[in-house]
Every structure is written in C-alpha cells, then in structure tokens.
Amino acid sequence: MDKLRRVLSGREDNEELGLTAQVLDASTLSFTTRIKWFAICFACGVLCSILGTALLFLPNGLKLFAVFYTLGNIAALSSTCFLMGPLKQLKRMFEPTRLIATCVMLESMCLFIGYTWNLLWPKPSRGTASHTFLLLEMRL
Fold first, then answer.
1. What pLDDT, on a 0 to 100 scale, did the predictor assign at position 51?
2. Which of 131, 35, 82, 92 is nearest to 123 (CA)?
3. Reported pTM
C-alpha cells in the first residue's frame, strides 16, 4: 500500500521531503479518503454517462443526454483529482504528448455545455445553437 501511495504522489523511495512538502502532506486528505472519494466520483460519473445514454431515446432525450453525459464526464475527470491532486493532474493533462487530446476534449465539453445551455434556455434574439457553433468551428 505504501508503494501505491508513493507512485500516486510522485515520490521516489530515496527522496527526502522539505519543510513545505511536509506541511502540505500534513494538510491534505488521507490516502483512504482519497480512494473513497475517487471511487464515489468515478461511480457517479459512469452512472450519469450511462443514464444520459439511456435517456437519449426518450422524446425530449437530447437535452437530458447532453446534461447527464456532460456531468458524467466532469465527475469522472474530477475523480482523478482525488488520487493525484488537481495541480498534478493539470500538469499531466497539458504535457506535450497529451496536449492535443486535452484541448480537443475540453473544447468538446465546452461546446456541448454551450449547446445544452441553448437547448434548455433558448433566447429568440440569440439565434440557434447550431449556427453559433458552426460559426465558431469555421473560425477555428
């Protein structure tokens, strides 16, 4: 179990902790709490994604699918923050080997959230969501 902790925290066996690292370690969540919240967030994310996919086939299912699938993705992504911490996760997400995949995923989620917003609360003066996203994609 200690080896798993060292791997997830990014420490090596022979590495000594400085004073600030010791203070930060003392003020963070315990390892068992991290594992529990990871499992809870990941299970909620998977459940929301499956529920969203199942609701897709209802008469007004596109709106529900958009909401639940986006919430599921956000919950599943945030679950890994409990294992390694949010800053380390962001650093790893924006490494050069993962940069394109991260940008595409974040852009897709933002566009999906905007599309959902326009579906749930349309404004007549704003135009349709499909025109907005078509213009955004043409500029990129």
1. 93
2. 131
3. 0.62
Contact status, residue 83 vs residue 7, Cβ threshold 8 Å: no
- Give per-residue pLDDT as tens, 7-53: 666 655 545 556 556 545 555 778 888 889 999 999 999 999 999 88
For the chain, what is the total number of helices (H) and then of strands (E)?
A: 7, 0
| Per-residue pLDDT reduced to its tens digit, 76-90 | 888 988 888 888 888
Percent of the chain that is helix, strand, coil (3-state, to 5): 75, 0, 25
Integer angstrom CA distances of residue 83 from 41, 48, 89, 97: 11, 21, 9, 21
**DSSP string of 15-73?**
PPP-HHHHHHHHTS--HHHHHHHHHHHHHHHHHHHHHHHHHTTSTTHHHHHHHHHHHHH
């060292």: which residue's tokens?
6
Burial 32-43 (b: 16+ CB within 10 A, else e): eebbebbeebbe
d(CA 85, CA 47): 23
Backbone angles phi, psi at 97, to 5 degrees: -75, -20
Cα separation of 46 and 43, whole Å?
5
